Amino acid sequence: MRAQLAKIAWSALGGDAKAVDNVFFTASGGLASPYAVTDFASATIATAGLAVAELVRALGGGDAAVSVDRRLASIWFGSSLRPIGWSLPPVWDPIAGNYRTRDGWIRLHTNAPHHRAAAERILGAGGVRSAVAAAVAGWRAGELEAAIIEADGCAAQMRSTAEWERHSQGRAVAAEPLVHVEPAGAAAERLQVDAPPARPLRDVRVLDLTRVLAGPVASRFLAGYGADVLRIDPPGWEEASLVPEVTLGKRCARLDLREPADREVFEGLLAGADVLLHGYRPGALERLGFGEAARRRIAPLLIDVALCAYGWSGPWAARRGFDSLVQMSAGIADTGMRWRRSEVPVPLPVQALDHATGYLMAAAAIRAVTRRLGGGPVTSAKLSLARTALLLRANPARGEPPFAPEGEGDVSDVVEDTPWGSARRVAVPLSVAGAPLRWDSPACDLGSSPPAWRARRESNPHLRV
Fold first, then answer.
1. Which run of H or of E encompasses 3?
2. Does the N terminus or the C terminus of the chain have fewer Cβ atoms within 10 A?
């Protein structure tokens, strides 16, 4: 099943499905779910690995064998960081979660302060979970979902698979490709990078405008093969529980794109970028004056890879969303509840939609780099969590036994000196022969670097063995 999933994903990116026959998958077992989550994780990581192998070959490195450890892939889809003597903050805001309504269930996503404020304006519960539950219980799920969305918040009614397939947005997403790969310009001048096959993305500049969680997974992967990743966040934005997990190998700066001086800096960064990753909702960058036409004017040869939650067409195309919300909307949480015979929604064991979409984004970016190295056309790519969910939903679990618990042997010996304390990472699940997945710098805090491209590669003293 994992090979078939990889063939679907690799073909969606324009690759030859036969290449998947040479990918080696190891480890038996799987995550407990009604869906084949472990095969899904392994297949999407393999797809990114195939893109790396293709780039290695283009750089003169010959054919590079690709293998994926299914057990480690499953672990990385949860988390990779293992703090030494300290703990990560809680992942969820105290009032985020699933609540029973008059006619079903709804999930509130309140991790961002403005999203929490929107929910509180509608429910008037003062931020106390028991009071929120009491207030939600008086609403119909669909009506509360609409009210919170109208207030610029984030929520999702739990729908069944059949309900989502009948829904206008579900139908729109089903009509979209897994990855929209489109030409964004004619044959271009060759991308000039001095990259050895062992570090195939060295000095490729990636401007990262993504947050929670798919986009940061993509840019972390690109950094692991040598890309110069510069993440840009607005002043005041924080995601404390995720920053140590996803900023590995990157530099992080802050810019306010509403301020003229910062806009000028951003234009300079965009003009110097090779790849742009962005996760703004459709239309959001346009409202800031950096829509597709403006980006193409500033950077005609830019590889543009975009992400949204609910698809690029249909009435919800501009709706805010996250992995946990798409699981509720698209029937995944309802299927999990029925599979477990539970009385409450049952999500996936990991945020698989985010992680899988991130690896597909990375694969799309790498394939576009390979095209540019050969003087091919500039391409763009668009993906969505809701469309990735359809790939998962089409593959039920095979009843594999659970993996053994994580042990010391699963964790790398490399010690990462982060701003929060020392840590180690779970061993990487992907092997591309001759091109190891490794990072040149530890995780860093948001806003810890200036908004400027690196002039030259610098060694970093904060990784040690």
1. helix 2-12
2. C
pLDDT number for residue 183? 86
Q: Compute the distance between CA of residue 290 and CA of residue 302 in angstroms, rounded to an integer.
A: 13
Q: Which residue, 258, 439, 334, 368, is CA-closest to 35?
A: 334
- Strand-pair partners of 157: 106
Q: Residue 281 CB: number of other CB atoms within 10 A?
A: 16
Q: Is pTM, for the whole model, over 0.90?
A: yes
C-alpha–C-alpha distance, residues 307 and 358, integer Å? 9
Q: Which of the listed CATH numbers 3.20.20.70, 3.40.50.10610, 3.40.50.10540, 3.90.550.10 matches domain 174-311+350-354+363-393+434-464?
A: 3.40.50.10540
Range scoring the smallest mean pLDDT among 10-24, 180-194, 335-349 = 180-194
Structure tokens that stand for 4 in this block: 């078939």
Reduce the DSSP state of residue 463 to 3 states and report it: strand
CA distance 283 to 148: 20
Output Rg (C-alpha) for the chain, integer angstroms. Answer: 21
Q: Is 366 exposed, middle or buried (0-12, 13-18, 19+ CB in 10 A)?
A: buried
Strand partners, 107: 98, 156
Strand 275-278 and strand 205-209: the pairing is: parallel
Question: 293: how many CB neighbours lie within 10 A of its CB?
Answer: 9
φ, ψ for residue 286 (rounded to 5)? -60, -45
Give the sign of the dihedral formed by CA 187, CA 188, CA 194, CA 195. Answer: negative
Contacts (Cβ under 8 Å, ≥6 apart) of 295 = 270, 276, 285, 302, 304
**What is the DSSP pairing of strand 66-69 with strand 228-233?**
unpaired
> Does 186 have pLDDT greater than 70?
no
Amino acid at 21: D
DSSP string spanning 117-150?
A: HHHHHHH--TT-HHHHHHHHTTS-HHHHHHHHHH
Residue in 353, 345, 349 with CA at minimum distance from that of residue 389 = 353
pLDDT digits (tens, 9 = 90+) for 324-375: 999 999 999 999 999 999 999 999 999 999 999 999 999 999 999 999 998 8
Residue by residue, DSSP assigns 241-296 as: TTHHHH-TT-EEEE--TTSHHHHHHHHHHHHH-SEEEE-PPTTHHHHTT--HHHHH
Q: How far apart are CA 392 and CA 38, in angstroms?
A: 10
The answer to whether the beta carbons of residues 91 and 53 sit under 8 Å apart is no
Cα separation, 25 vs 42, in Å, equals: 8
Rounded CA-CA distance 289/257 in Å is 9
